[in-house]
Specification:
The complex is a heterodimer. By secondary structure, chain A is an alpha+beta fold. Chain A has seven helices and 13 strands. The longest helix of chain A has 34 residues, at 17-50. Chain B is mostly helical. Chain B is 65% helix and 0% strand. Chain B has helices at 3-6, 34-38, 43-71, 82-117, 126-148, 162-165, 170-197, 210-242, 255-289, 296-309, 325-353, 362-385, 387-393, 397-427, 433-460, 474-504; one strand spanning 555-556. Chain B is globular and about 70 Å long. Classes of the chains: A alpha+beta, B mainly alpha. Strand 1 of chain A pairs parallel with strand 1 of chain B, so a sheet runs across the interface. The complex binds protoporphyrin IX containing FE and copper (II) ion. The site of copper (II) ion has 7 residues of chain A, from loops. Protoporphyrin IX containing FE binds at residues 62, 65, 68-69, 89-90, 92-93, 96-97, 100-101, 155-156, 400, 404, 408, 411-412, 450, 464-465, 484, 487-488 of chain B.
Amino acid sequence: MNELLNKLLFLPEQASTFAERVDSLHYFVVTVTMLSSFVTGTAAIYFFFRYRRRADHQTTEYVIPSVKTEFVFVSLPLVFFLAWFVIGFRDFVYVQTPPKDSMDVYVMGKQWMWKFSYPEGPNGVNVLHVPANRPVRLLITSRDVLHSFFVPAFRIKMDAVPGRYTQTWFEATKPGTYQILCTEYCGLSHSKMLGEVVVLSPEEWDAWVKEQRKGGLQNRQDALADLALEPETARMSAQGQKVAAEVGCFKCHTVNGEPHIGPTFQGMYGRMETMQDGTSLRVDEAYITQSMMDPGAHLVTGFPNVMPTFQGKLTGPQTAAIVEYIKTLRTPDIRTGATQGPVYEPIQ
Amino acid sequence: MSPSSSTEAVPGAVPAPDEHHEHHPSYLVDGTTVKSWLLTLDHKRIGVMYLIWVLLFFLIGGTYALVVRLELLTPGPTIIDAMTYNRAFTMHGVVMIFLFMIPAIPGAFGNFMLPLMLGAKDVAFPRLNLLSLYLLLIGAMIAIWGMINGGMDTGWTFYTPYSTHTTTTVAPILFGAFIIGFSSIATGLNFIVTTHTMRAPGITWFKMPLFVWAMYATACIQVLATPVLGLVLLLVVGEQLFHFGIFDPARGGDPVLFQHLFWFYSHPAVYIMVLPSFGVMSEIVAAFSRKNIFGYRAVAFSSLGIAFVGFFAWGHHMFVSGQSTFNAGVFAVLTMLVGVFTAIKVFNWVGTVYKGAVDFKTPFAYFCGFLYFTVFGGMTGVAFATASLDVPWHDTYFVVAHFHFIMVGATIMAFMAAIHYWFPKMFGRMYHEGWGLVSAALIILGFNATFIPQFLLGNAGMPRRYYEYPERFQTLNVASTAGASLLALGFIISAIYLVYALVYGEKAASNPWHSKGYEWLTESPPPTHNFVGPQPIYTEEPHFYVDPEKAEEPYEV
Ligand code: HEM
Ligand SMILES: [Cu+2]
């Protein structure tokens, strides 16, 4: 029955404890809605035929409802609506009240990505790892505008409001990967603000946490080790790539030649670009720097003016490192993994 | 209005034209210069001008709708880029809500019919009435200027802080909406005063046609709620231009405060849109089943009830905004009450058909569509108010489908029904019945085909205001777009035969439906001063189709 209704109503699979509760009420409500529409509709249709007009100047009887009828009219819907309310409110309290022993994850919405951080453990962008069968409390906020964190398979949703924390929780029941969507309109790339929850079995979870802790540390050491071995410019550009990833350049700029929200970095250095005011300009160090500090000053045709300024957010050496990094992207075969999935950073 | 002149009138019948008839041309031909229309103080001409403008706005909003729907045909970019899409759905919402749904029925049919139904010569403040039309147009022009010069990409809900941070032209459009608010308030005030002071002798409160009750309840909401919207829109403009910091957390403000203020207007505004359609439908179901309204008082009071509790339900838009669980519970229960009041109306409309004499004409076809949209849309509304169900549905396509069913479905059905029902009254000609039924069928079918897939999309989890979507949502989106084309076709057909009827339509009899609505007690189209000769006397209830002999013994069920 559950399966059938789930299919008929196009509901996603039920992957949390709350999903099952919500769905049973959903079925009840849909059934009552359908039945009452059907009964009202049938009564109306029957009346239309039964009481067709037979003569042009036909008169009718003076029919009025008795008090009893009006009482039924009021109490019948009221009883059903209150029943829904009672069940619905009980479930609402359930989803609003995280259990005491739940694990915390901080969630931050930001145009247009989700950032997750664990009190002790890794940070993640757009991918949230959680263990199955363990309550997880999400503490949600936003860096800029309103967003809303929605996992259809868990049936949970909570707005991300700048300036305050909201919370919700879930207990995933099946290992697997589930989509995260943003349901509060948040600007240009609202519909691209996707992420996923990866639910791991307890063993996988333990292994993952261990890996992240170790990995986090090791990545840091590896990075230092690599830097020490490489020649000067390479070090700067590697640093630049890291900074660019941290401040979020790759949300809008790719390095594989495909324009995204902004122009691709690949082959950008040295290219002639046509600006929106018709002039053209060769991309050089000065232009790249200006684009970071005052993005609206010269806009490349075909792209919206949505880039935030990094004035004050990047230090001089960091800016220089990014410029160096972009300079290394002149040849088409340089690829980095930066846009191909989440970036993990160890918690500072 | 002196009692002496009414002695010769036939109760409840059209007064016989007196010998001065030739000197009382219909309002349509009494002065044919452009100026005589543009500066008219006649409520009927103002109503007709409203009708023309709201139809134009409907066309603009509908065009945006089709662009939005076409874009959603494929998962990725289809015809426009993301920025254009965001502007298109915003303008669709703004135009349809502020320029079509809110003014449509009160502006066009309220203005035309209310004084006729009250046996009055005009509304209480004819100059204010004309001003309200021009305020609407000024507001519309400012908003449309903003749309052409940049447009806005916030969605019609203008949620902060996005609306105060976006670089698109928010200010003129919000300012336009602010001015339109004054138009709405002026119309409301006018109707309230008219209803209180200008009822003809014999029309007591409980003998007012139900359309008047509905307009009265609507007017109360317009007057009480609109100022809140006006102020909050000004605050947003101020915040955008001068960085007030009322809603911006970076400056210590609260973005959720905006939502409270916004929905404090916009939730009752839903009833500004839907109550007039309830009123229209009460008239039509009575006229076409030739029956007194079953439970007249219940229908009248439920309008007031909806208007009242409508003010205390706004929090159901914010169940997942971080408001307290307790608040959510309170708003959930209060919202259910709106559902109960609506249910009373539905039952009484069906009861009206019972033992009636049904004539299945185009307006009645729209009544059937309306009944269905109201039941289904209303029930999904109550489902939404069930707090836990709102969690997965909020801000998905389920919302879009729900409000289109209830607000748009009901309003469109009533608007189309009203055009057909009152066409002979307003223009003295008949439309083509066959085409009327064909286009009604297309519109109702198209509407279902457009929005039922959207309910399912919402269930599946597709968020609203999505330019691109995961592939798995495509089938339902294609179905919805196909439905929208059917709907558009229905409207195009209506537009054609109605315009044709305006010019070539058969001349209508004075009361072609044999309706007992009070507005039919004068000629069609009415003369400038509404009544020629003796004033009709109102001894019967409105919609009284009872055989005089049987009138004494009401039949109770
Ligand atoms: C041809 C018929 C229509 C179609 C195909 C249509 C389509 C749509 C679609 C697809 C959306 C969702 C936009 C989004 O969430 O991204 C929408 C939103 C909306 N529509 Fe319609 N619509 C139609 C008629 C109407 C009418 C007649 C009205 C009002 C009288 C109306 C009022 C609204 C409102 C208020 C919204 C919400 C806008 C927003 O979320 O910003 N629509 N419509
Ligand atoms: Cu978002």
